From TrEMBL:
The keyword Amino-acid biosynthesis does not apply. It holds the Pfam family GHMP_kinases_C. One of its GO terms (biological process) is isopentenyl diphosphate biosynthetic process, mevalonate pathway. GO terms for cellular component: cytosol. Pathway: Isoprenoid biosynthesis; isopentenyl diphosphate biosynthesis via mevalonate pathway; isopentenyl diphosphate from (R)-mevalonate: step 1/3. Residues 77-143 form the GHMP kinase N-terminal domain. InterPro entries: GHMP_kinase_C_dom, GHMP_kinase_C_sf, GHMP_kinase_N_dom, Mev_gal_kin, Ribosomal_Su5_D2-typ_SF, Ribsml_uS5_D2-typ_fold_subgr. This is Galactokinase. Gene3D superfamilies: 3.30.230.10, GHMP kinase, C-terminal domain.
């Protein structure tokens, strides 16, 4: 593996503020990159045996077909993530993108692989495993807030992008119940093929909620964002059964104790809820939530986070470009 350079990839996670599944069903969705990051660093020295079935070995195998001169086994890695796993915050995609970025930064010929190509490769790699959409890949690479238009195959179109307001922040409630989306996409694709009216109702309401989230964000209307996210969650729950009694209890507790409206991020029955608040209120809200949830669900975690730049805005050593 000649030409190896030490590389450090830093990739944010993402919250879906509205429009789960619309990145491949069609319609609008809103993503927001968060500074709960996944970091992958290559370690110089002998290569590691390829991990059968593991993402490092599989991503390396994918790249061997596209970058000449890669050896049979990937380098040794240091990996760390702040994002809770299996939570609907795209921690898996963040790891996959970080692997692609670290490997190509360390081994691809200069000047490296364009960011758009990395996004396409990461999408193709994950689509082969899960048959899903490309919101997550664009969200963690582009960063900040994106309004996306879904496509049946391929990456969604970026309709608009904007910086999240500096005086806003995000509170994440990790429910400590893991998502299980192993069968979700197959079921929704069957609904689509069968023209299920529940799916049609979801698509209409979620698409409108996404438009309203985006408009309110641009206007600096925090209440409007919260209202539209609330409607997006209700559409997920009522038409597609994506919520659970545990998640609904957490939502009620958050509204009662801290006045914060929470929305499930990502499809599936479990994971994390997200709410947008003023940055000045974030810590008091988090404190109130921890006290309330300590009695209701002690295993739940409350995380404070802010909007983040994407992986495409960082160089090989992890610094902003």
């Amino acid at each position: 593996m000649s030409g190896e350079r030490t590389a450090r990839a830093v990739v944010p996670c993402r919250a879906c503020l509205s429009g789960e599944d619309l990145d491949w069903l069609g319609g609008r969705s809103v993503s927001l990159a968060l500074d709960l990051t996944t970091v992958v660093e290559t370690v110089p020295g002998p290569a590691a045996p390829a991990a059968a079935g593991g993402w490092p070995g599989q991503v390396w195998g994918f790249l061997r077909g596209r970058i000449p001169g890669l050896g049979p086994n990937p380098p040794v890695l240091n990996v760390h993530s702040d994002a809770p796993a299996a939570s609907g915050l795209s921690s898996s995609t963040a790891l996959i993108v970080a692997l692609f970025q670290a490997y190509t930064d360390a081994f691809a010929p200069s000047p490296g692989i364009p960011v758009a190509t990395l996004a396409q490769w990461a999408y193709e790699f994950e689509f082969a495993h899960f048959n899903g959409g490309g919101m997550d890949h664009l969200a963690v690479i582009e960063g900040d807030a994106l309004l996306l238009e879904g496509r049946p195959t391929g990456l969604p179109a970026v309709l608009e992008r904007r910086a999240f307001p500096d005086d806003w922040a995000v509170v994440v409630v990790d429910s400590a119940t893991r998502k299980d989306t192993s069968d979700h996409i197959r079921v929704v694709r069957a609904q689509l093929a069968g023209r299920d009216p529940a799916l049609a109702a979801y698509l209409k309401e979620a698409d409108q909620a996404s438009a309203d989230v985006w408009e309110a964000m641009g206007a600096g209307d925090l209440d409007g964002v919260g209202d539209a996210m609330d409607r997006a969650h209700n559409a997920m729950r009522d038409h597609q059964g994506m919520s659970t009694p545990v998640l609904e209890d957490l939502r009620e507790a958050a509204l009662r104790s801290a006045g914060l409206r929470l929305k499930l991020s990502g499809a599936g029955g479990g994971g994390a809820l997200v709410g947008v608040c003023r940055a000045a209120d974030q810590e008091p809200i988090a404190t109130a939530l921890r006290q309330a949830l300590g009695e209701l669900r002690p295993a739940a975690r409350v995380l404070t986070t802010r909007a983040a730049a994407g992986a495409g805005a960082r160089s090989a050593n992890g610094e902003a470009r």
